């Protein structure tokens, strides 16, 4: 794989700067690729999937030789060199594409073997392969890569490991991130796989910070259809977790469900005591608080400048910037109002359902607060909103 990566880099260098100067930096790229040609009979010709690469490398040598011979200061020589450099750049780009395809085949084959192996394989090595695959998929859609992914049945292998309680937690989490990357890579193909399979149940059963991060990502990608498959009571229990990070990501999950969830999902959350749990989290001195009391703007600052030094257009945006920075250190601040706002601006509810849920939330706030001051603050935030 290191050799293939080096050859890919050589083809990139040659594509970007073909030169007739033997002392130029591109000469090393040319040398590396032409040396591969000397091994073509042994390495490339015997593999049908490498036949195209062999043809491109065979085409490269005469082009390079022609460029190196094309000396002279005449207009004709100049134009000939320009055309020849263009041809070399085009062939180098094709070689780069074929080498990347070779790398993808080798990487996927290694990953599938690692995931399907019944023998003991290094956990760190398997996770390394999973993260390499995730990074490759995140580079964007490619029809060739999609065909390779489908032929390899990598999704089935990832799903099996994700659902296998005998696998290590780290490998299951890394597999979960790879599944999420596949959904982003092509929603038309992999959303159905996620909805019909055990992926969502497995993510919730793992119940870790990483698995809930993946769940949030999938909610944003698949929206209401995925929310319908979520075990709502289990999500609400994460708000009472002893691990702070799990509580933080659980709040994010609740907010995502609030934005995309239909009536049944919102009713289920309220039935499980969501508002009371959010009030308790908001009451936290170190991590909670009220955005409505922090003040919108810094007095004496120029309009159009955010507290963090980032240029923005108005005081409203400056206030939004300050709120985001405050929420980074106080993740439970105004979480009741933030949930209510998600219902109001979200995609899952009808207008009359939004009004009914807002009244229900106001009622539950009154029942959950321990003081008149707390009640008044949270009610004001819910009624007027804590963000612009």
UniProtKB/TrEMBL annotation:
Top-level taxon in the UniProt lineage: Eukaryota
SUPFAM superfamilies reported for this sequence: ARM repeat
PANTHER family referenced in this protein's UniProt entry, alphabetically: ARMADILLO-TYPE FOLD PROTEIN-RELATED (PTHR35834), ATAXIN-10 DOMAIN-CONTAINING PROTEIN (PTHR35834:SF2)
Protein name as catalogued: Uncharacterized protein
Protein's organism: Kingdonia uniflora
Lineage, highest ranks first: Eukaryota, Viridiplantae, Streptophyta, Embryophyta, Tracheophyta
